[in-house]
Amino acid sequence: MKTAAADASRAPARKRSAAPAPELREACIAAAREAIAQHGIENLSLRDVARSLGVSHQAPYKHYPSRDHLLAEVMRCSFQQFAQALDARRHFDDPAQDLHSLCRQYLGYAQQHPLEYRLMFGTPWPAAVQECEQMHKSTHAFDILRQVLRRIHGDGARQRARVDLDAMFVWSAMHGLVGVMNGNCLCKLDLQVDPLDQVVQHVVDRVARAVTDE
After folding, report:
1. Burial (CB count <10 Å: 0-12, 13-18, 19+), residue 38
2. What is the chain's percent helix, strand, coil content, to nearest 5?
3. Whole-model pTM?
4. What is the assigned CATH class of domain 18-64?
5. What ranges do the domains of the chain cover?
6. Are the C-beta atoms of residues 142 and 72 closer than 8 Å to each other?
7. ∠ at Cα 65 (59, 69), nearest 5°?
8. What share of the chain has pLDDT > 90, as a percent?
9. Interacting residues of 1 by C-beta distance below 8 A, sequence separation 6+
10. Candidates 1.20.200.10, 1.10.357.10, 2.60.120.1440, 3.40.50.720; correct CATH number of 78-212?
11. pLDDT 10s digits, 156-195
């Protein structure tokens, strides 16, 4: 006599419940981010994303024509999250203090979200980015910095070049500091200061002083 246990043993393994269609787009983004974190960006594929979600290998193609389109969307979401974090900083009426706060928020995000930061600033943008209209939101984070600098220099035609130049200076300084902080060299430099506190404060102070120095 066949038993229920025997029948169950012969039954095919069930896939994980597939994500409902309206949620599949977002589920693909989350699965892609997880795949990149575990296996590297070079190994990202739509087939593996589909397998991890328990859907057919064709399902992701309904939203993403190629692997690069999915990667572009992951990057767009990273830029959006980054801009939201900068917007959520503590705001100050004094623009110099506001710049301090913005720099600190930038550094904090980079430390708390190293994968997203690396995707934004350490990964070549796929060609599909040019087709992704929402990728233009990536400029929002830079515009936040411009807005603070306009409060320092003014918003006239003559000041716009200074604003852009200082924005690039601040951005480059913070990006460089992130690289140093996330690297392995600080603990080997025999610094006479606390690298995660005094160094950051010193760099941010010097950046703000350079920007506000007329």
Report:
1. exposed
2. 75, 0, 25
3. 0.81
4. mainly alpha
5. 18-64, 78-212
6. no
7. 110
8. 60
9. none
10. 1.10.357.10
11. 888 999 999 999 999 999 999 998 887 767 777 777 766 6
